[in-house]
């Protein structure tokens, strides 16, 4: 069932979304060479406990996973892109880290993902991350009342084509609200003018993710971590978005003070 939320419900989701954005920004600042992935996981656990929130991942047990996830943030490194199972691994200079987090506060969920480069960035990695971010903003721009889900998918696919990245259609965006995954699947490519009509009160998670060299994926033996089938680098960007009378409202924006990628891009462009 697809539930259209009231303005009051959306504001409750916005409270959750702000918290998710803040914690992702903190994790990005903490991600440095020598830092263990489990240190990031435990930081997120502490913040969730302090806030009185609930992780949407802890008991997450879909058909493709091996039992409940039992962690609170997905941490995917380099060729891993989705559902990266936190484990003891010390980040290295140049690693591309994708972080995905969903929590619920007072019964309302929000979900967001953010990719960063640890330390010294390679230009091709920054370009890959940029593509997911540009695709996300393009999708948000067309998430207008009266448009359709296909417009969102087509906007993402157009950016992928512009950057020259293939698109996997198995995993994409979804409805969200009282639970992390509600009805509606939003593939990362599609045809405009098709699909569910966007109406005020609809809340969705839009999440473009690309691999540099393939649209095929492979699962790790842990049953969770999804990688590019050819070992190429990957990146993932996601926001929870509400459709309102006046247009899309992003509920999971990170604090504007987070300038990590912008600084890295400027440094890469100047050769410093």
From TrEMBL:
Pfam families: Peptidase_M24 (PF00557). Its EC number is 3.4.11.18. A divalent metal cation 2 binds at residues 111, 174, 207, 238. The keyword Iron does not apply. InterPro entries: Creatinase/aminopeptidase-like (IPR036005), Pept_M24 (IPR000994), Pept_M24_MAP (IPR001714), Pept_M24A_MAP1 (IPR002467). One of its GO terms (molecular function) is initiator methionyl aminopeptidase activity. The keyword Lipid biosynthesis does not apply. Residues 11-245 form the Peptidase M24 domain. It is an enzyme of class 3 (hydrolase). Keywords: Aminopeptidase, Hydrolase, Metal-binding, Protease. A divalent metal cation 1 binds at residues 100, 111, 238. It catalyses: Release of N-terminal amino acids, preferentially methionine, from peptides and arylamides. It comes from the Bacteria. Binds 2 divalent metal cations per subunit. Has a high-affinity and a low affinity metal-binding site. The true nature of the physiological cofactor is under debate. The enzyme is active with cobalt, zinc, manganese or divalent iron ions. Most likely, methionine aminopeptidases function as mononuclear Fe(2+)-metalloproteases under physiological conditions, and the catalytically relevant metal-binding site has been assigned to the histidine-containing high-affinity site. Residues 253-266 have a biased composition (Basic and acidic residues). Its cofactor is Co(2+); Zn(2+); Mn(2+); Fe(2+). CDD domains: MetAP1. Residues 253-272 are annotated as: Disordered. Belongs to the peptidase M24A family. Methionine aminopeptidase type 1 subfamily. PANTHER family: METHIONINE AMINOPEPTIDASE. Monomer. Removes the N-terminal methionine from nascent proteins. The N-terminal methionine is often cleaved when the second residue in the primary sequence is small and uncharged (Met-Ala-, Cys, Gly, Pro, Ser, Thr, or Val). Requires deformylation of the N(alpha)-formylated initiator methionine before it can be hydrolyzed. This is Methionine aminopeptidase.
